[in-house]
Amino acid sequence: MAGLAAAEAFHDAGFDVDLYERQSYDAKRVNCGEAMTAVSEIPLDPTPENGFHNPLPALEVEVYDGTASDRRRTGRGEFPAADAYITDRNAVERAWADRLDRLGVAVHEDHPVPSADFLEFADGYDLVVDATGHPSLSSKALGRTDAYGARLVALNADVAGDFGDLHPNARIVLENYTGYVWAFPKTPRRANLGIGWTFDERPDDYFAAFAAACDRNGWPVPSRDRTNVATIPEGPNLDPDRTYLPEHSVVRVGDAAGIANRVTGKGISQAVESSYLAAELAAAGRLEAYPGRLYRRLKPEFLFASVVRHLLEARRPRVLGAAVRAASGVDIEAVDRAPTTVLRRLARNPLLLARIFLRRRALGRLYAGMTDRWRATGAGRGSG
């Protein structure tokens, strides 16, 4: 999605664009990221033909104190989703690639670029936009995959079954580990189901843990052969200064820039936004400002996600459940992009606010973020 967004934005800015995709769009099977927010930023009609199936009314969030059979729910909230769809991501990507082809972008499918050839490949262009995920192709070519910090691992599958009780809403379930399980119905009879963990809490048997989570939440268990595994950066996951490499004429966007949400792993709207920003600055001859501009745009989201992540790591499901109840009703995109909206809700309950923030580790996490010392990367302040 980041590569498609970059091709769209740079073409719109007046550049001649080549888009390289290592697979065929018709053959790809990508289930990760099928709940898309900020859909109005994607230049496609949100129709089923283009892969947009369920215009999501609300995302339900439930918090439990564990995964045992006698677990208790500590909180529940509903978060409207005015600009969100549950999608077939493959179909969205195919439709966007077709649009780019009609616009005159040279779309090269089934064209992987080996990391050993990347720098020579980059020499053939004025600029290469690296949208190759985490760790990025350019980092592999430079032998710097260690420049990335922590990551999440996620399993997901397209599953047939009875989702009539949930559809058209979607659901995320937090179960007192650093991660969550989800059900994103596309229709009353079909949904994207998944589970994710922070990398240091991943189980020995991914699929067994996934199947158990589906079973305890009352969802059909997917087949192993239809289940995909993905790794996702915990933003901010890369030193902001490394998102633009002028010495190699490379700019990184999306997961390659390490900007997925630290709690949810959500990264498509960030991928689109970072791609559009890179094109805007490149057209103005100001790409050197990209790291700082990108970082400042996303910093409120990083800060808020860092606090929520602390509640997960500290195993405080009652506090987290109370916070979800208090924030219920805030648009899901605003939770990420305008977290002051949530903070104003929490401020109505000073005791809850104190329970969240008046702890040494929580304050330390907040201070580290405010001063740009992020645990995942140890990154300093972005330039620009």
Automatic annotation (TrEMBL):
Organism per entry: Halobellus ruber
The protein's name in its UniProt record: NAD(P)/FAD-dependent oxidoreductase
Gene3D superfamilies: FAD/NAD(P)-binding domain (3.50.50.60)
PANTHER family xref list: CONDITIONED MEDIUM FACTOR RECEPTOR 1, GERANYLGERANYL DIPHOSPHATE REDUCTASE
InterPro entries: FAD/NAD-bd_sf, Geranylgeranyl_reductase
